[in-house]
Amino acid sequence: MSKNSQSSMSSNEEGPDPMDLDPPVSKGADGGLSARSDSPNYQYTSSEDATQIPWIFSQIKGTMDDDITDADIISVVEFNSTGEYLATGDKGGRVVIFKRHQKKNSPILCDYNVYCTFQSHEAVFDYLKSIEIEEKINKIKWIRQPNNSLYLLTTNDKTIKLWKIAERRPRTRNLNLISDDGNSRAFSKYLKVPCVDKDFTVEAIPRRIFSNAHTYHISSISVNSDDETFLSADDLRVNVWNLNCTDQSFNVVDIKPNNMEDLSEVITSAQFHPTNCHEFIYSSSTGAIRLCDMRSRALCDKHAKWFQETEDPANKSFFSEVIVSIAD
Questions:
Q1: How far apart (Å, rounded) are the C-alpha atoms in residues 9 and 35?
Q2: Residue 252 and residue 232: Cα distance in Å, rounded?
Q3: 171 class by beta-carbon count within 10 Å (0-12 exposed, 13-18 middle, 19+ buried)
């Protein structure tokens, strides 16, 4: 596009207004934008293909303004296994959890409203390396719900944290035979009027902190199907942790060469198998995906399977190494 055409577009066309989208949107009480149910375009079906799924504009969480700070930029989003909860992390180290609420006038449509907000990570300064470790949330992974509480893992470049999200139900106070701390007490001749706290709160409690195991920036975390272990991967290593043990981890992949000048690839992502707890894969910047089986060897320096699409040398270009890299 020429410079003249760009300047004419910026002067004559201001772009579509978010409030003119089809279907129209309305601003909710929580500041989010959602589709108006009274709009004639709220639901539609395709006339070309009757079996096509009708996509419906439902909701926008956040702000449409351009003047946002760098800390408010969302860096990761993650649904839990049921889709009832949605967790988002931003560059400011905050985690916001949304909970699904079914709309009364529709059995299909639903809204996600804020359920809990907490500060997961803070910026810290590494005095040994003279660098600042930023608070940006790199990954969020949900853990299968063992009880009424929610559990999730969050990580920045160096530290992984296990969080418990619990609801504090209304509490009864001023009981005559039971004290406020739950102990029984003798009956008094003066009767008290019991009362119930109406405040309903959701608390985020840090349960475990996993740190000091990665020299390089953590790029991936993955929870195992046994719900007891998880892996974390940086540029050169993959470690396996137990959720109940924070002071040690087991190194299963180490591609760091003796001479760093011989380094030809870095790890870009790692993931456990969804059902087989002994298998995991990791990808590299060269476009290779390696499947490892922890039953065959403790240190998976030799993979069980290798997946890579070979490229014709005649088609290689300046950007080939950038394009071939696999990222999560």
A1: 29
A2: 10
A3: exposed
Q: Which of 64-68, 101-105, 266-270 has the lowest mean pLDDT?
A: 64-68
Residue matched to tokens 């990808």: 283
Under DSSP, is residue 39 helix (H, G, I), strand (E, B) or coil? coil
Residues 185-222, buried b or exposed e (16+ Cβ, 10 A)?
eeeeeeeeeeeeeeeeebebeeebebeebbeeebbbbb
**CA separation (Å) from 267 to 96, 140, 186, 311?**
29, 19, 66, 20
pLDDT digits (tens, 9 = 90+) for 53-74: 777 777 887 777 777 888 889 9
| Tokens of residue 82, six digits | 């049921």
Cα dihedral 291→296→298→301 (10° resolution): -50
Please state, in angstroms and as integers, the Cα–Cα distance from residue 162 to each residue in 54, 154, 210, 223, 316, following that order: 38, 7, 8, 11, 44
Give tens-digit pLDDT for 211-228: 989 999 999 999 999 999
Whole-number Cα distances in Å, 231 to 122, 134, 208, 238, 276? 22, 21, 15, 7, 14
Q: What percent of the chain has pLDDT over 70?
A: 76
Residue 61's nearest CA partner among 94, 25, 105, 21 is: 25
Q: Which two tokens stand for residue 264?
A: 């030809």
Asked if 73 and 90 count as a contact pair (C-beta separation under 8 A), the reply is yes
How many Å apart are CA 323 and CA 317, to the nearest integer? 10
**C-beta of residue 145 within 8 angstroms of C-beta of residue 153:** no
End-to-end CA gap in the chain: 32
Tokens, residue 61? 């969480």
- pTM equals 0.74
Token look-up 């009767």 returns 191
